[in-house]
Design the sequence.
């Protein structure tokens, strides 16, 4: 069974606290997990941020939504208790409590729209979404990053081959390779008919070096022959390590080949290149920062 969305967990939460006594949220979370028969692996699955599990996040947002609608209250730290509205919801919604149902209460409408007014228009997109605000935020961020990656690749392919070779070295530097910028600059001037575009130190002391190959393609797929040619060039230099970077893609045969040979060759295609540039802040800058805050439990600890 997949991890239930936050709307699906609302009614099971009400069932878990239906006796009217305050319950610990941890106990309610456990009851929800049992209700949906979640495995240990499903219980442990985390949001992309890694800071919270999916099921705990969804139970937390279900509590927030129901509290804003007056279905539950929080009589104390970490506690939840059902209200008369909550019991009414159990009667009105025998299968599933939804955001649409919560909009029967003006307090929730004011919270959900953030624009209190007498005339409330329906918002089907928000209403039918099964994702929590945290998940929606992370999905929006992922979409923005995908769009940025595409834009980066378009910009790179429009640049000159010389700039691309410089970009490759800059990326290696940003990732912690290459020693000093001066040494890396000397590496970019290394040329060879053997299919090597540059060399760069693996560590600041230069105890080992990495040979680079950079191909700025738009649609051409890099196949096994080109990767084999790079491996042969490494043999000529008695080198053991290489990085082949392209703005396009590698064929399945090319990726299979590097797994068969003894020397270590890392293949970085266009999508991975863009992601690495974003991760190491190369050629990108922060457009806007949104601080998502949460309660500081230590501050409220009176012990």
Sequence:
């Amino acid at each position: 069974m997949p991890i239930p969305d936050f709307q699906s967990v609302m009614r099971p939460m009400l069932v878990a606290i239906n006796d009217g006594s305050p319950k610990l949220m941890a106990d309610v979370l456990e009851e929800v997990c049992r209700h949906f028969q979640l495995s240990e692996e499903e219980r442990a699955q985390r949001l992309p941020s890694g800071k919270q599990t999916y099921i705990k996040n969804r139970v937390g947002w279900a509590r927030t939504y129901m509290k804003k609608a007056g279905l539950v209250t929080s009589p104390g730290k970490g506690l939840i208790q059902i209200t008369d509205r909550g019991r009414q919801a159990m009667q009105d919604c025998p299968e599933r409590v939804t955001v649409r149902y919560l909009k029967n209460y003006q307090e929730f409408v004011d919270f959900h729209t953030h624009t209190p007014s007498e005339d409330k228009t329906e918002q089907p997109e928000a209403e039918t979404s099964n994702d929590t605000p945290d998940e929606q935020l992370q999905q929006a961020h992922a979409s923005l990053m995908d769009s940025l990656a595409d834009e980066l690749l378009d910009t790179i392919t429009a640049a000159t081959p010389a700039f691309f070779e410089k970009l490759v070295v800059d990326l290696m530097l940003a990732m912690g390779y290459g020693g000093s910028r001066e040494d890396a600059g000397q590496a970019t001037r290394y040329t060879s008919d053997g299919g090597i575009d540059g060399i760069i130190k693996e560590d600041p002391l230069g105890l080992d070096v990495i040979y680079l190959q950079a191909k700025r393609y738009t649609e051409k797929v890099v196949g096994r022959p080109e990767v084999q040619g790079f491996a042969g060039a490494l043999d000529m230099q008695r080198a053991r390590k290489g990085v082949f970077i392209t703005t396009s893609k590698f064929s399945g045969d090319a990726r299979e080949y590097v797994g068969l040979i003894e020397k270590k060759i890392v293949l970085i295609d266009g999508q991975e290149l863009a992601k690495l540039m974003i991760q190491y802040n190369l050629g990108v800058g922060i457009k806007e920062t949104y601080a998502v805050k949460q309660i500081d439990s230590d501050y409220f600890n009176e012990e």
Summary: The longest strand covers residues 209-215. The first helix runs from residue 10 to 16. The beta strands are 23-24, 72-73, 79-82, 198-201, 209-215, 221-222, 241-246, 249-250, 264-268.
